[in-house]
Amino acid sequence: MKNEPTQEILLELLTIPGVSGDEGAIADWLENVLTASPMAKGKITLSRIGDNVIAVRGKPKTAVFAHTDTVGFTLGYRDTLIHVGSPKPEDRDLLKSESNWTARLRKQTDGDGGESWVLRRVRNEKDEPAEAVPGSRWVYAREPKMENGFLTSPYLDNRAGVWTALRCLYRCENIAVAFTTGEEQHGQGARICADHLYRTLGITQALIADITWHTEDTPCGKGVVVSLRDAFCPRQRILDRVLRLAEESKVAVQREIQSAGSSDGGHILRSPVPMDWVFIGAPEMEPHTSREQLSLNDLDAMTDLLTHLTNEL
Protein backbone atom coordinates (compact mmCIF):
# COMPACT_ATOMS: atom_id res chain seq x y z
CA MET A 1 0.00 0.00 0.00
CA LYS A 2 1.20 3.51 -0.83
CA ASN A 3 3.12 5.24 1.98
CA GLU A 4 2.50 2.47 4.55
CA PRO A 5 5.33 1.84 7.04
CA THR A 6 8.36 0.26 5.38
CA GLN A 7 10.88 -2.26 6.67
CA GLU A 8 13.07 0.70 7.59
CA ILE A 9 10.37 1.76 10.05
CA LEU A 10 10.49 -1.72 11.58
CA LEU A 11 14.27 -1.44 11.95
CA GLU A 12 13.81 1.96 13.61
CA LEU A 13 11.25 0.49 16.00
CA LEU A 14 13.76 -2.17 17.02
CA THR A 15 16.20 0.50 18.24
CA ILE A 16 13.80 2.07 20.77
CA PRO A 17 14.14 0.64 24.29
CA GLY A 18 10.83 -0.15 25.97
CA VAL A 19 11.15 -2.54 28.89
CA SER A 20 7.86 -3.18 30.71
CA GLY A 21 7.22 -0.16 32.89
CA ASP A 22 9.34 2.12 30.71
CA GLU A 23 7.42 2.39 27.42
CA GLY A 24 7.41 6.21 27.28
CA ALA A 25 9.93 6.53 24.45
CA ILE A 26 8.03 4.27 22.08
CA ALA A 27 4.71 5.92 23.00
CA ASP A 28 6.26 9.29 22.11
CA TRP A 29 7.59 7.83 18.85
CA LEU A 30 4.19 6.42 17.89
CA GLU A 31 2.47 9.74 18.58
CA ASN A 32 5.05 11.64 16.54
CA VAL A 33 4.93 9.22 13.59
CA LEU A 34 1.15 9.13 13.45
CA THR A 35 0.74 12.90 13.94
CA ALA A 36 3.24 13.64 11.16
CA SER A 37 1.73 11.18 8.70
CA PRO A 38 -0.20 12.78 5.81
CA MET A 39 -2.59 9.82 5.99
CA ALA A 40 -3.44 10.68 9.61
CA LYS A 41 -4.56 14.25 9.02
CA GLY A 42 -8.31 14.37 9.51
CA LYS A 43 -8.55 10.57 9.53
CA ILE A 44 -6.95 9.32 12.75
CA THR A 45 -7.83 10.31 16.30
CA LEU A 46 -5.14 9.66 18.91
CA SER A 47 -5.66 9.11 22.62
CA ARG A 48 -2.88 8.56 25.13
CA ILE A 49 -3.52 7.01 28.53
CA GLY A 50 -0.24 6.87 30.40
CA ASP A 51 2.06 5.29 27.82
CA ASN A 52 -0.76 3.44 26.04
CA VAL A 53 -1.55 4.94 22.63
CA ILE A 54 -4.92 4.36 20.96
CA ALA A 55 -5.40 5.25 17.28
CA VAL A 56 -8.90 5.29 15.81
CA ARG A 57 -9.80 5.62 12.14
CA GLY A 58 -13.36 5.78 10.81
CA LYS A 59 -16.05 3.81 12.63
CA PRO A 60 -14.37 0.61 13.75
CA LYS A 61 -16.07 -2.56 14.90
CA THR A 62 -12.80 -4.35 15.62
CA ALA A 63 -9.69 -3.35 17.57
CA VAL A 64 -6.14 -4.56 16.97
CA PHE A 65 -4.01 -4.84 20.12
CA ALA A 66 -0.20 -4.71 19.85
CA HIS A 67 1.95 -4.50 22.96
CA THR A 68 4.89 -2.12 22.88
CA ASP A 69 6.85 -3.38 25.88
CA THR A 70 9.71 -5.86 25.88
CA VAL A 71 11.52 -8.07 28.34
CA GLY A 72 14.72 -6.71 29.85
CA PHE A 73 16.65 -6.25 33.07
CA THR A 74 16.90 -4.00 36.10
CA LEU A 75 20.34 -3.66 37.67
CA GLY A 76 20.25 -4.64 41.33
CA TYR A 77 22.98 -4.41 43.93
CA ARG A 78 26.52 -5.67 43.29
CA ASP A 79 26.02 -5.69 39.49
CA THR A 80 23.37 -8.43 39.67
CA LEU A 81 20.62 -8.27 37.04
CA ILE A 82 16.95 -8.76 37.87
CA HIS A 83 14.70 -10.02 35.07
CA VAL A 84 11.81 -7.91 33.77
CA GLY A 85 9.36 -10.39 32.28
CA SER A 86 11.06 -13.60 31.20
CA PRO A 87 14.17 -12.85 29.14
CA LYS A 88 16.34 -15.80 28.15
CA PRO A 89 19.88 -14.40 28.20
CA GLU A 90 22.97 -16.23 27.07
CA ASP A 91 26.45 -16.01 28.51
CA ARG A 92 28.34 -12.98 27.15
CA ASP A 93 25.27 -11.34 25.59
CA LEU A 94 25.90 -7.65 24.98
CA LEU A 95 23.56 -5.33 26.84
CA LYS A 96 23.02 -1.57 26.76
CA SER A 97 21.61 0.75 29.39
CA GLU A 98 19.23 3.72 29.23
CA SER A 99 22.40 5.88 29.12
CA ASN A 100 23.81 3.86 26.19
CA TRP A 101 26.50 2.22 28.27
CA THR A 102 27.28 -1.32 27.16
CA ALA A 103 28.26 -4.38 29.14
CA ARG A 104 28.73 -8.10 28.77
CA LEU A 105 26.39 -10.41 30.60
CA ARG A 106 27.95 -13.25 32.59
CA LYS A 107 26.40 -16.20 34.36
CA GLN A 108 27.54 -16.59 37.95
CA THR A 109 27.16 -19.66 40.17
CA ASP A 110 27.21 -19.38 43.94
CA GLY A 111 28.47 -21.96 46.46
CA ASP A 112 25.03 -23.56 46.75
CA GLY A 113 24.70 -24.08 43.00
CA GLY A 114 22.34 -21.16 42.46
CA GLU A 115 22.72 -19.05 39.32
CA SER A 116 22.53 -15.33 38.75
CA TRP A 117 23.38 -12.94 35.92
CA VAL A 118 25.85 -10.10 36.44
CA LEU A 119 27.32 -7.28 34.37
CA ARG A 120 30.99 -7.37 33.37
CA ARG A 121 33.17 -4.84 31.51
CA VAL A 122 30.80 -1.88 31.57
CA ARG A 123 31.75 0.77 28.99
CA ASN A 124 30.36 4.13 27.91
CA GLU A 125 30.05 5.48 24.35
CA LYS A 126 33.77 6.40 24.33
CA ASP A 127 34.66 2.85 25.38
CA GLU A 128 35.78 4.11 28.78
CA PRO A 129 34.98 2.37 32.07
CA ALA A 130 31.60 3.53 33.35
CA GLU A 131 29.70 3.12 36.59
CA ALA A 132 26.71 0.79 36.46
CA VAL A 133 24.02 2.40 38.62
CA PRO A 134 21.69 0.14 40.62
CA GLY A 135 18.12 0.64 39.42
CA SER A 136 19.14 1.36 35.82
CA ARG A 137 17.40 -0.49 33.00
CA TRP A 138 19.24 -2.72 30.53
CA VAL A 139 18.25 -4.33 27.22
CA TYR A 140 19.85 -6.53 24.58
CA ALA A 141 22.22 -4.60 22.31
CA ARG A 142 22.55 -6.94 19.31
CA GLU A 143 21.98 -5.16 15.97
CA PRO A 144 19.15 -6.32 13.64
CA LYS A 145 20.18 -8.37 10.60
CA MET A 146 18.18 -9.12 7.46
CA GLU A 147 19.32 -12.08 5.37
CA ASN A 148 17.64 -14.47 2.93
CA GLY A 149 14.15 -13.25 3.77
CA PHE A 150 14.62 -13.58 7.54
CA LEU A 151 15.06 -10.89 10.19
CA THR A 152 17.17 -11.62 13.27
CA SER A 153 17.02 -9.16 16.16
CA PRO A 154 16.18 -8.71 19.80
CA TYR A 155 12.62 -7.65 20.55
CA LEU A 156 10.82 -8.78 17.42
CA ASP A 157 8.36 -9.70 20.16
CA ASN A 158 6.57 -7.44 19.85
CA ARG A 159 7.99 -4.64 17.70
CA ALA A 160 7.08 -6.72 14.65
CA GLY A 161 3.49 -6.81 15.91
CA VAL A 162 3.52 -3.03 16.40
CA TRP A 163 4.76 -2.63 12.83
CA THR A 164 2.01 -4.83 11.39
CA ALA A 165 -0.60 -2.89 13.40
CA LEU A 166 0.75 0.37 11.96
CA ARG A 167 0.47 -1.07 8.46
CA CYS A 168 -3.15 -2.04 9.14
CA LEU A 169 -3.91 1.56 10.13
CA TYR A 170 -2.86 2.62 6.65
CA ARG A 171 -4.87 -0.12 4.93
CA CYS A 172 -8.16 -0.12 6.86
CA GLU A 173 -10.65 2.74 6.71
CA ASN A 174 -12.40 1.58 9.90
CA ILE A 175 -10.01 0.37 12.58
CA ALA A 176 -8.93 0.97 16.16
CA VAL A 177 -5.40 0.06 17.23
CA ALA A 178 -4.36 -0.14 20.87
CA PHE A 179 -0.61 0.06 21.41
CA THR A 180 -0.50 -1.36 24.91
CA THR A 181 1.95 -1.46 27.82
CA GLY A 182 2.98 -4.08 30.33
CA GLU A 183 2.07 -7.27 28.46
CA GLU A 184 5.28 -8.99 29.55
CA GLN A 185 4.46 -8.41 33.23
CA HIS A 186 1.03 -7.33 34.42
CA GLY A 187 -1.18 -6.63 31.41
CA GLN A 188 -2.66 -3.42 32.77
CA GLY A 189 -2.31 -1.67 29.40
CA ALA A 190 -4.58 -4.15 27.61
CA ARG A 191 -7.23 -3.83 30.30
CA ILE A 192 -7.10 -0.01 30.21
CA CYS A 193 -7.37 0.09 26.42
CA ALA A 194 -10.14 -2.50 26.27
CA ASP A 195 -12.16 -0.50 28.80
CA HIS A 196 -11.62 2.75 26.85
CA LEU A 197 -12.57 1.21 23.50
CA TYR A 198 -15.66 -0.46 24.92
CA ARG A 199 -16.89 2.66 26.73
CA THR A 200 -16.18 5.17 23.93
CA LEU A 201 -16.80 3.11 20.78
CA GLY A 202 -18.72 0.06 21.93
CA ILE A 203 -16.04 -2.28 20.52
CA THR A 204 -16.48 -5.87 21.69
CA GLN A 205 -14.00 -7.80 19.52
CA ALA A 206 -10.24 -7.68 19.26
CA LEU A 207 -7.40 -9.19 17.27
CA ILE A 208 -4.13 -9.64 19.15
CA ALA A 209 -1.18 -8.74 16.90
CA ASP A 210 1.70 -10.48 18.63
CA ILE A 211 4.50 -12.94 17.92
CA THR A 212 4.27 -16.64 18.72
CA TRP A 213 6.55 -19.68 18.82
CA HIS A 214 8.22 -21.53 15.97
CA THR A 215 7.42 -25.22 16.44
CA GLU A 216 7.34 -28.36 14.32
CA ASP A 217 3.61 -27.72 13.81
CA THR A 218 3.83 -23.95 13.18
CA PRO A 219 7.24 -23.36 11.58
CA CYS A 220 8.70 -20.05 10.45
CA GLY A 221 8.23 -19.40 6.76
CA LYS A 222 4.91 -21.24 6.39
CA GLY A 223 2.54 -18.36 7.12
CA VAL A 224 0.85 -16.44 9.89
CA VAL A 225 -0.55 -18.31 12.89
CA VAL A 226 -4.12 -18.24 14.21
CA SER A 227 -4.05 -19.51 17.78
CA LEU A 228 -6.89 -21.85 18.71
CA ARG A 229 -5.78 -21.58 22.34
CA ASP A 230 -2.80 -21.00 24.63
CA ALA A 231 -3.09 -20.99 28.44
CA PHE A 232 -6.54 -19.50 27.77
CA CYS A 233 -9.28 -20.28 25.28
CA PRO A 234 -10.94 -17.57 23.19
CA ARG A 235 -14.70 -17.70 22.76
CA GLN A 236 -15.39 -20.40 20.20
CA ARG A 237 -17.92 -18.49 18.12
CA ILE A 238 -15.55 -15.64 17.26
CA LEU A 239 -12.71 -18.12 16.74
CA ASP A 240 -14.85 -20.04 14.25
CA ARG A 241 -15.62 -16.80 12.38
CA VAL A 242 -11.95 -15.87 12.26
CA LEU A 243 -10.96 -19.31 10.96
CA ARG A 244 -13.62 -19.18 8.26
CA LEU A 245 -12.53 -15.69 7.16
CA ALA A 246 -8.88 -16.73 7.26
CA GLU A 247 -9.62 -19.62 4.90
CA GLU A 248 -11.50 -17.28 2.55
CA SER A 249 -8.62 -14.77 2.57
CA LYS A 250 -6.22 -17.09 0.68
CA VAL A 251 -3.44 -15.87 2.98
CA ALA A 252 -0.92 -18.52 4.11
CA VAL A 253 -2.30 -19.46 7.54
CA GLN A 254 -1.28 -22.01 10.17
CA ARG A 255 -3.30 -23.17 13.17
CA GLU A 256 -1.68 -23.26 16.59
CA ILE A 257 -2.73 -25.26 19.65
CA GLN A 258 -0.80 -24.59 22.87
CA SER A 259 -1.31 -25.35 26.54
CA ALA A 260 0.85 -22.51 27.89
CA GLY A 261 1.76 -18.91 27.17
CA SER A 262 -0.51 -15.91 26.97
CA SER A 263 -0.90 -12.45 25.45
CA ASP A 264 -2.96 -9.29 25.72
CA GLY A 265 -5.89 -11.60 24.98
CA GLY A 266 -5.42 -13.30 28.33
CA HIS A 267 -5.26 -9.91 30.06
CA ILE A 268 -8.50 -8.81 28.37
CA LEU A 269 -10.11 -12.10 29.38
CA ARG A 270 -9.32 -11.39 33.03
CA SER A 271 -10.86 -7.91 32.83
CA PRO A 272 -14.57 -7.09 33.31
CA VAL A 273 -14.85 -5.79 29.73
CA PRO A 274 -17.04 -7.99 27.46
CA MET A 275 -14.53 -8.15 24.61
CA ASP A 276 -13.83 -11.26 22.54
CA TRP A 277 -10.33 -11.80 21.16
CA VAL A 278 -8.31 -14.04 18.86
CA PHE A 279 -4.51 -14.17 18.65
CA ILE A 280 -2.93 -13.59 15.21
CA GLY A 281 0.85 -13.70 14.90
CA ALA A 282 3.94 -14.72 12.98
CA PRO A 283 6.03 -17.54 14.49
CA GLU A 284 9.59 -16.80 15.58
CA MET A 285 12.62 -18.77 16.67
CA GLU A 286 14.52 -18.13 19.91
CA PRO A 287 11.85 -16.02 21.69
CA HIS A 288 12.98 -13.58 24.39
CA THR A 289 16.66 -14.04 23.46
CA SER A 290 18.97 -11.52 21.80
CA ARG A 291 18.60 -13.36 18.48
CA GLU A 292 14.90 -13.77 17.83
CA GLN A 293 14.29 -14.67 14.18
CA LEU A 294 11.26 -14.63 11.91
CA SER A 295 10.31 -14.68 8.24
CA LEU A 296 9.51 -11.40 6.52
CA ASN A 297 7.00 -13.28 4.36
CA ASP A 298 5.20 -14.38 7.52
CA LEU A 299 5.02 -10.73 8.63
CA ASP A 300 3.47 -9.79 5.30
CA ALA A 301 0.95 -12.62 5.72
CA MET A 302 0.23 -11.37 9.24
CA THR A 303 -0.50 -7.87 7.93
CA ASP A 304 -2.66 -9.24 5.10
CA LEU A 305 -4.72 -11.42 7.44
CA LEU A 306 -5.18 -8.72 10.09
CA THR A 307 -6.32 -6.34 7.37
CA HIS A 308 -8.79 -8.85 5.95
CA LEU A 309 -10.20 -9.75 9.37
CA THR A 310 -10.52 -6.11 10.44
CA ASN A 311 -12.45 -5.30 7.29
CA GLU A 312 -14.72 -8.36 7.44
CA LEU A 313 -15.47 -9.09 11.08
Key words describing this protein structure:
313 residues, alpha+beta, Aminopeptidase, eight-stranded mixed beta sheet, six-stranded antiparallel beta sheet
Produce a short descriptive summary.
The chain is an alpha+beta fold.
As a whole number of angstroms, the C-alpha radius of gyration is: 19 Å
CATH classification, class level of the largest domain? Alpha Beta
* Low-confidence runs: none
Percentage of residues assigned to helices = 25-40%
What's the total helix number?
7
**Average pLDDT level:** 94
Amount of beta strand: 25-35%
CATH architecture descriptor of the largest domain? 3-Layer(aba) Sandwich
Spatial strand order of the main sheet: 1-2-12-3-13-17-15-16
Question: Could you give the count of β-strands?
Answer: 19
Shape assignment: globular
What is the string of helix and strand elements?
HHEEEEEEEEEEEHEHEEEHEHEEEH
Structurally, the number of domains stands at 2
Description:
The protein is α+β, with helices and mostly antiparallel strands. It has two domains: 232 residues, Zn peptidases (Aminopeptidase, 3-Layer(aba) Sandwich); 68 residues, no CATH class. The protein is built from seven helices and 19 strands. A hairpin with a 5-residue loop joins strand 7 and strand 8. The longest helix has 17 residues. The mean pLDDT is 94.
